[in-house]
Fold this sequence. Notes:
Blueprint: H1 5-34, H2 41-75, H3 84-105, H4 110-138, H5 151-184, H6 190-223
Helix pairs in contact: 1-2, 1-6, 2-3, 2-5, 3-4, 4-5, 5-6
Amino acid sequence: MGITELAILKWLHIISMVYWLGGEWGIFHTSSHVVNRNLSMDERMRHMNTAYLIDLPARTGIILLMPIGLHMGHHWGVQPFGGHYLTAMWLFVLAWLGICWAAFYYRETDRGIFLTMLDEKVRYLLIPLMLGSSISSLLGYGPFEAGEMQKWFSIKLGIFALLLVIGLILRFIMREWTTLFRILAEGPNTEAENRLEKSLSLGRTLAYFYWIGIATVAFFGVTKFM
């Protein structure tokens, strides 16, 4: 049978999903050391840098899952846009990925914060677009096929859009860490420490919903239920 384009896309989809889930799990545990007041600032900074290193493959996986899924959807006949549409989508995603990596490279600078905010603005565009397309398709208005045993694609896309919302909030949290650590580098600051702990508490709560959502997306992708 040989290696097909669809088989390669499936392989990339699995890898992206693994890095996404694994990365979020790593950040979940590393983050507790970031807000630990009993550690030295150097030690806390080391854990924050580790969190950023773990987060980069996770962010990469999240970004790649969208084009890979839409590309596979075209092969399965539930996503009608192929050819030049797929090419344009991949070029857009590669540019987005470049912004994400550049934001990581410059993460301790004002440029890094600007690039992170630019990355977030891309999500502001994509989240309503994907969620709207999902709902519209499930209601029978397209653009995706949603007949018998085809609804799984639109459901999966809608859940993925909601997960991007959670991911966006988690991005806000990590961006806030950078700002707060600049304040803490100048000396002890109780208010900054309290904000760090509060943001960690929110992030940990969201992480549970994140993992459930990721598992649900994977379930619909594998079983193609509905």
